[in-house]
């Protein structure tokens, strides 16, 4: 047996059955290599190799779990134990039930801001990682052993799941209800596909990543310009180009380009949270840009017109129905404004990633619960004047009703609520997803069980 047969490289013909295929079949498949990207000489970048791939992989290994965990926390914040998270019935994928806390008041703003903001910032890193391993995606024959079957299936699910989450997430940010399917349902299950593939891929590739990182010095690469850039030694995985071209960029330049792309995305998204003049630079989150006037000049996710609110229903005849006790109550706006008022500086954070903090004034929900004869409610059901829509009602947990800063808000920043911000009254609860801070409230039912 020749040395070529005993020590096959990534593009050589193995000569033994240990690769999972009879040698003759392997040689026949290798000779039938398709043209184009399936031929290794097509991929000629001299900076591709285990080290650069491992650097991108290490960044994603640290940051993608943060995106995953904050995404799952966002689902938990919608109250799956109350049956209002989307999707509602997830079978054995059900997360542990718990009451989403109201403190700190910026909790949901932090978790969802990290989920969306970090997810967007990582797009250049994801694309760079895919670029670094693209020759592997076109390896021929596609599989050589059962271990490689598992690796390639996990890679397919990993890349497909990640790209699906990115594309649908970005489109959901940019466009209102674009899909012919539930974004929330698809994003949830797509996320679990990615999680499973990510765990398998890390288990298979972590030792290779560690070796790749140790193969070169980061400090040395950051000091090496294009003139000094040389290809890595041939590797067993076929990442290094067999016929490398002259370098057009150094590894330092590639890292700078990817890092610069991530920094640019951060600049273009951060204004949705920082507010003020920086909001005009937030080009990637236009759904949070609609604003009102004066004290009501802050983002609106859904206007009164878009929600189909009849102005007549919010006029002088409007009254809040309070249910749950032995006798229903009806409180018009004059009676509500005559009650003891409380002001609280609270954020509204949206699932699309934008958030804003304003000073809200209104009647504490726990005071309304006391009036209803349910001083310690287990939950509360809030209905909106909005007749249709996925979020024309919300269920509040008992701790959310009883928090002292949970309000039926009547004013914001010292002024009356505008129609687009929920006039004549809206719900404001610390740390709750924005869509559950119901606008145009028509009734609240306090429940004991």
TrEMBL record:
One Pfam family named in its UniProt record: Oxidored_molyb
Species: Amycolatopsis antarctica
Entry superkingdom: Bacteria
Transmembrane stretches, start-end: 51-78, 114-134, 155-175, 181-204
Transmembrane helix listed as a keyword: yes
Record bears the keyword Transmembrane helix: yes
PANTHER family in UniProt: BLL0505 PROTEIN, PROTEIN-METHIONINE-SULFOXIDE REDUCTASE
Residue ranges of domain Oxidoreductase molybdopterin-binding in the record: 314-446
Lineage per the UniProt record: Bacteria, Bacillati, Actinomycetota, Actinomycetes, Pseudonocardiales
Protein name: Oxidoreductase molybdopterin-binding domain-containing protein
């Amino acid at each position: 047996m020749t040395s070529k047969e005993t020590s096959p490289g990534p593009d050589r013909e193995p000569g033994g059955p240990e690769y999972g295929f009879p040698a003759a079949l392997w040689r026949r498949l290798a000779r039938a290599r398709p043209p184009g990207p399936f031929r290794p000489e097509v991929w000629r970048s001299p900076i591709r190799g285990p080290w650069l791939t491992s650097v991108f992989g290490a960044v994603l290994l640290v940051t993608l779990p943060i995106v995953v965990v904050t995404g799952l926390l966002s689902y938990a914040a919608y109250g799956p134990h109350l049956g209002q998270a989307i999707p509602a019935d997830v079978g054995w994928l059900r997360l542990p039930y718990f009451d989403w806390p109201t403190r700190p008041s910026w909790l949901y703003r932090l978790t969802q801001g990290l989920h969306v903001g970090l997810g967007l910032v990582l797009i250049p890193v994801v694309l760079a990682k895919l670029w670094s391993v693209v020759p592997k995606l076109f390896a021929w024959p596609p599989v050589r052993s059962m271990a490689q079957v598992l690796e390639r299936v996990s890679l397919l699910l990993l890349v497909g799941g990640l790209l699906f989450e990115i594309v649908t997430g970005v489109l959901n940010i940019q466009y209102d209800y674009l899909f012919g399917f539930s974004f929330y349902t698809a994003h949830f299950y797509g996320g679990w596909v990615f999680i499973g593939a990510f765990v398998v891929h890390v288990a298979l590739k972590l030792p290779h990543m560690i070796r790749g990182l140790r193969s070169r010095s980061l400090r040395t690469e950051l000091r090496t310009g294009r003139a000094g850039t040389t290809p890595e030694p041939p590797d067993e995985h076929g990442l290094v180009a067999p016929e490398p071209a002259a370098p057009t960029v150094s590894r330092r330049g590639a890292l700078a380009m990817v890092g610069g792309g991530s920094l640019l995305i951060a600049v273009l998204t951060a204004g949705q949270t920082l507010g003020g003049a920086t909001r005009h630079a937030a080009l990637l989150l236009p759904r949070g840009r609609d604003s009102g006037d004066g004290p009501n000049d802050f983002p609106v996710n859904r206007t009164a017109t878009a929600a189909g609110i009849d102005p007549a229903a919010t006029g002088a005849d409007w009254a809040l129905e309070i249910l749950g006790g032995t006798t229903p109550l009806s409180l018009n706006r004059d009676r509500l404004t005559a009650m003891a008022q409380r002001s609280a500086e609270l954020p509204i954070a949206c699932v699309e990633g934008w958030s804003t903090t304003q000073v809200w004034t209104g009647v504490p929900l726990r005071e309304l619960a006391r009036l209803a004869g349910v001083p310690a409610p287990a939950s509360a059901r809030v209905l909106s004047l909005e007749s249709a829509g996925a979020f024309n009602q919300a269920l509040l947990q008992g701790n959310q009703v009883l928090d002292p800063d949970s309000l039926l808000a009547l004013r914001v920043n010292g002024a009356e609520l505008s129609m687009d911000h929920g006039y004549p009254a809206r719900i404001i609860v610390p740390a709750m997803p924005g869509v559950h801070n119901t606008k145009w409230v028509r009734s609240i039912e306090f429940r004991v069980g």
